[in-house]
Write a structure and sequence with these properties.
about 45% helix, 2 domains, 6-stranded parallel sheet, Rossmann fold, 9 helices, 3-stranded antiparallel sheet, about 300 residues, L-2-Hydroxyisocaproate Dehydrogenase, Chain A, domain 2, alpha/beta
């Protein structure tokens, strides 16, 4: 039986980490493509040479030639300008719009039946670019945001409570930015809502740290996070390639759902072999609904700017 084929666009920190994690989980054969001569090839070789130690059999190649990516099952787009100290995700809009426009067109040309996971920022707007350029079915284009933001919220909650991260289930919604909407009512530890375990001030402090989680890493390193974003992308890819029907937060297309009106935005969804198989609609209270609509408004503003750039 033929193995799954995964193309990872961009061999920088996020792309290479994604390739390594996908290989260790044996999700399929991997093509790591970059415009920089030797970058994808070198990192692919390094990952391949780790296989005898880590015991995986994924075939990994690096390349600058898009023909090598042909007939991929999944394309994970990590290419784009990373954030630096003092930059917001929105600051990357113009440059990354052109990059995502270019690579999305190539994905559509060489792998017209693939499913796309976008990782670069500003996330929700870049998913829109990929969907518009490829003209793929909306359920086959999505963004890795909620998986990362949920992981950060889980991490901070686990540290605060002194429990295993495996016990925590988080739900986040909205755009991937400072106005994302973590939902304490739908977040639990061993099935117990965190509102029963932590006071409101502590929860709000952890929510704020989650919202600023990306820039916290940027300020420490001088550049964007990559291990956690890669882990989020690989979790999504695994759910799709193995048809796991995994429920997680991601940037997905919403029309009537949450009265979004036809935008890609962070929501809880079921991921399986067909991509986004279902958007789960939660019964938000008034305060949560207000926060979500504010975040969605920001996404709409970014998309309007993107339309002026395409």
């Amino acid at each position: 039986m033929a193995r799954n084929k995964i193309t990872i666009v961009g061999a920088g920190n996020v792309g290479a980490s994604t390739a390594y994690m996908a290989a260790t989980r044996q999700l399929g054969d991997i093509v790591l493509i970059d415009i920089v001569e030797g970058l994808g090839e070198g990192k692919a070789l390094d990952i391949a040479e780790a296989a005898p130690v880590q015991l995986y059999d994924s075939h990994i190649v690096g390349t600058c030639d898009w023909k090598e990516t042909a007939d991929s099952d999944i394309a994970i787009i990590t290419s784009g300008l990373p954030r630096k100290p003092g930059m917001s995700r929105d600051d990357l809009l113009a440059k990354n719009t052109q990059i995502v426009k270019d690579v999305s067109g190539k994905v559509a040309r060489y792998s017209p039946n693939s499913i796309i996971i976008v990782v670069c920022n500003p996330l929700d707007a870049m998913v829109y670019v990929a969907a518009k350029i490829t003209d793929f079915a909306k359920n086959k284009v999505m963004g890795m945001a909620g998986a990362l933001d949920s992981a950060r919220f889980c991490c901070f909650l686990a540290l605060e409570l002194g429990v295993s991260v495996e016990e925590i289930k988080c739900v986040l919604m909205g755009g991937h930015g400072d106005d994302m909407v973590p939902l304490p009512r739908f977040t639990s530890v061993g099935g117990i809502p965190i509102t029963h375990l932590l006071d409101a001030d502590t929860i709000n402090r952890l929510i704020e740290r989650t919202r600023k989680g990306g820039i916290e890493v940027v300020n420490l390193l001088g550049y964007s996070a990559y291990y956690a974003p890669a882990a989020g992308a690989v979790k999504m890819a695994e759910a799709i390639l193995k048809d796991k029907k995994t429920v997680l937060s991601c940037c997905a297309y919403c029309q009537s759902e949450y009265d979004a009106g036809g935008y890609f935005v962070g929501v809880p969804a079921v991921l399986g072999g067909r991509g986004v198989e279902k958007v789960i609609e939660l019964d938000l209270n008034d305060a949560e609904q207000v926060q979500f609509q504010q975040s969605l408004t920001h996404v709409k503003e970014l998309v309007a700017k993107v339309d002026g750039l395409l």
